[in-house]
Amino acid sequence: MSCNGLLIDYEYCTGCHSCEVACRNEKKIPRDKWGIKLTEVGPWQVSGDKWEWNYIPVPTELCDLCKDRVENGEKPSCVHHCLGQAMECGPVEELAKKMVEKGKKVVLFIP
Amino acid sequence: MKKEWKEEKNGCYTVRTCGWSPPGDHPVGCGMKLHIKDGRLVKVEGDPEHPISQGRLCVRCLSLPEYVHHPQRITYPMKRVGARGEDKWQRISWDEAWDIIVEKINGFKKNYGAESIIVFGGTGREACLYYYPLGFASLGTPNVCYPLSGWSCYGPRCAITDYILGAGYPEIDFAGHYPDRYDNPNYKLPKYIMLWGKMPLWSNPDGFYGHSLIDMMKRGTKIISVDPRINWLSTRAEHRLQLRPGSDTALALGLLNVIINEDLYDHEFVDKWCYGFAELKERVQEYPPEKVEEITWVKKERIVEVARILATDKPNAIQWGLAIDENPNGVQLGHAILSIIAITGNLDVPGGITLGPPSTLLGKWRIETRSELSEDLWAKRIGAAEWPALSTALATTHPDETLDTLETGKPYKLRMGWFNSSNFITATNSAQPDRWYRALKSLEFNVVQDCFMTPTAMAFADIFLPLPTFAEHDGVVLTHFGRNAIFVGAMNKALEVGECKSDIEVCIELGKRLNPEAWPWDNVEDFFSDQLKPELGFDFNGLRERGVYQPGYTYHKHEKGLLRADGEPGFNTVTGKVELSSTLFELWGDDPLPYYKEPPYSPISTPELAKEYPLILTTGARNVTSFHSEHRQIPSLRAITPDPIMEIHPDTAASLGIIEGDWVYMENMFGKAKEKAHLTPAIHPKVVHASHGWWYPEKPAEEPSLYGVWESNINTLIPHKHIGKLGFGAPFKSILCKVYKVE
Predict the structure, then answer these.
(1) Which domain holds residue B654?
(2) Considering CB atoms only, which of B62, B230, B635 is closest to A81?
(3) pLDDT at A2
(4) What is the number of domains present in chain B?
(5) What is the pTM of this model?
(6) Could you read off the pLDDT of B189-204 as tens digits, one per residue?
(7) Is the domain defined by A4-109 classed in CATH 3.40.50.300?
(8) How close B54 gets to chain A, by Cα (Å)?
(9) Which of A14, A15, A18 sits opposite B57 (nearest CB)?
(10) Which chain A residues are closer than 8 Å to B631 by Cβ?
C-alpha cells in the first residue's frame, strides 16, 4: 500500500516563499496559519570557505498534498509554483529512489 | 503554446497573459493564467506552457488579487482640493482631467516654452517604454528625466556597450531565444557564470528570468559570485569573491592582468576583432594581483584562479549587475568587464554572452519619437550639451543637472512636472531625495500616474491619473526594453477595475489632443499591430495567439556583417572593432582605457571622515516581496517582509551594543535612516547593508509624515552629483556611515 509524499531538494530551494503563498491561495488558509512553512538554517561558515545556508519548507497538518488537484492531473499548488523547481509529489517509493539518486540535500515528507 | 488565450468555464473565465507591470517587475514576462469570477480577479496560476517560467510564479504575482482589489488603490482620476501635502481630493472624470491638463500645458508652452515641462519616469515598469513618447510626442517637451544620480541604473551599461561593442544589451546565454530551450542543438551550456554585483534570483533583471540560473546549475553550470555579501546563491558557488564595496574596477583590471600576462587570451579574436590591445596590456601592468588584493580584499590566489577559469574553461559568461552602474568608477568597470568577455572569446558564442541590436520594436519607436521635436527644442534638453557621453546614448536629461536646474532656475525655470510611475522621494531612484523634495516644490503644476497614493503623489500631485495593473490592460512584454529581445510576450487584459488607463492609452488620448499627427491610432490593438507587424510579420492578435514569440538567435554576428548598418563584418563602433581602448571616451575627455579610482568616500579616500563614520554602507539588495517602493501595503507580502532590514556582522553589532531585531540608525554627513538590525556573518565586519524603497502606507498620509517617507530613507545618505567623469554612476553601493541603536 503506497501513499504520496513531498520531496524537497533543498540544494535548490531558494527560499522564495512561493509555496507558502500558493498553498494559502489554494486552500484559503488565513495568514496566521500555514499549509507549508519555510524554515531557514544558516547562514554560517562550516569551515574555511564552506557555508551552510538552507531553506526547507515543512508541510503541516493542513496539507493534503492537494488531493483534488492531483486527482485532476495537476501538481500540488506548491510544487507547481516552486521557483527552484525543487519540489516533487508522488508515491513515496518512487521519491525514495530519487532521493538515493540525488545523494545529498534532499528530504521527503509524508504530511 | 495553445492558440486560445481566453477560456470560459461555468460562468468564470481565465485569461493567459505575460506579466510586466504594474505592479512592477522588469520585462520578464512570466506566464500565468488569471482566473476571473464575477468581475474580480480571484486567483493567479502559473502557466506551465510558458517556455521560460514553466508554471513557476513568485509571490508578487501569486498575491496579485490583493493588489488589484486593494481598498486603498486609486481607480478614478482625482484632483487635489486642498493644499499640497493635504490628503484632500475630489474624484473627477477623465474629460475633466484632460481639460485641466491640456489648458495648463498649452499655457506653459505659450508663456514659457515646452521645455518648462518635465516628465519624470521610474525604473523597470512598463512605463519605461512609454514615458519617452509621452514627453516627446504627446507633451512636446525635450525634458524626460530618470532622476537617479549618475543615471545609475541600466543606462550606463547600455551606453558603455553602445560605445565599446556598438550593440544592444549583453545578456548571458540562457537559451531564452529558443522554444526548445537548453535542448536546442545550437545551444551550449555555460560552464561558468560569473555574477558580478547581481543576485538575479530576486532582481530578475531587465528580462532575464532569475531562476534560469537554477535550471542551468542543475544541468552543470558553476557559479562565480562577485559580491560584498555572501548571499544564498553564492553559498552554492564554486568561487566567492567577497570584495570591498566600490573596489570592483581594480578586481576587473587584476583579472585582465592575469589573463593577458599568462597569455591565456584568445589571440585570434583579439587580432581580428579588437582595437587597442597593446594599450590595454600596458595599462593592466599597473594592477598585479598582489596590489589588487590590497585594494579589494580578494585573495590574490583566488584572482589568479578565477582569471584562468574565465580564459580557459569555456564557454562562460559574466552577468554584470546594477553595481556596475551605481559606482562613479562604473564606466571603467563595465569597459573592463566587456574587455574580459571579448578577449577570452566568450562574446556572441553559444553559452557565452548574447548581443542584441541597439534597439528594436517598441524600444526603437520610443526613442524615435524624439523626431517630433524641432532641433532648437531638442538642444534645450537639460544637461545634454555638458554631458555628451550620456546624451548621445540616452534620450533623457542629465539627472543631476536636472536637480540643479530645479534648484537654481538655470538655464530656465521648470514649471510643470509629470510623474510617471515614479515614487522617487522614497529611497528609490534619486540620491538625496530630501533635496529633490525641496526642489520639486517649485513646480507650479503636477500630474502623477500611479496605482496607489504614494509619498511622492501626496506631496506633489495636483491631478492623479490611475494606472491599471497588467491584469487590466493589453500590452507587449519586451525583454531588455527591445535591446536584446529574447522573446516577445502578449499581455492580455482580463478585467477592468474603476476607470484606469494604461500608459499607452494616456499617451494616445493626450497625444490626440495636443499633437494628433504623431498619434494616428484609434485603439491600442492597432498601435501594437503597427509596432509588431513590420519586424515580426504578425499583428497583436497573432502575438496573443502565440502567447510568447521567440525569434531564435544567430551567433558570431560580427563575422557575418549582422551588427553594422552597412552590412560589413565587425562591430558597430568608431573603429569597427571591440574598443579595448575607447576612441569616444577619449574624445569626451576621459581616459580611453579602464582605470581604478577609489570611491569618493571610503576609508582610503577620506580617512578623516572614516574616523567618525567607520563602516562602509552598501544599499539596495533586492528581495522577492517588493519591487522598489511597491507592495508595502500588500498583506501577504508585508507579512513575509514586515520591516526594512539592515545587515550587520555579529562582531560589529556586539561592539555597538546592538542585538538582533534592534532598530538602528545609519547616519553619515548627508543624512540618516532607521532600519531593523539583522545580524549575519554573511557580511564583512567593516560593511553594513541597508534595504531601499521603504515607506509606510499605514502611517499618516499628510505632511510632514508623507507615510513616514523620511524615517527609513537610505538614499538620504547618498550625495548628489558625485558622479564619474562622463556623467555616469553614483556611490549607492559604497558610502561611509556609522551605526547606532535607536533609543
Answers:
(1) 607-741
(2) B62
(3) 82
(4) 2
(5) 0.98
(6) 999 999 999 999 999 9
(7) no
(8) 9
(9) A18
(10) none
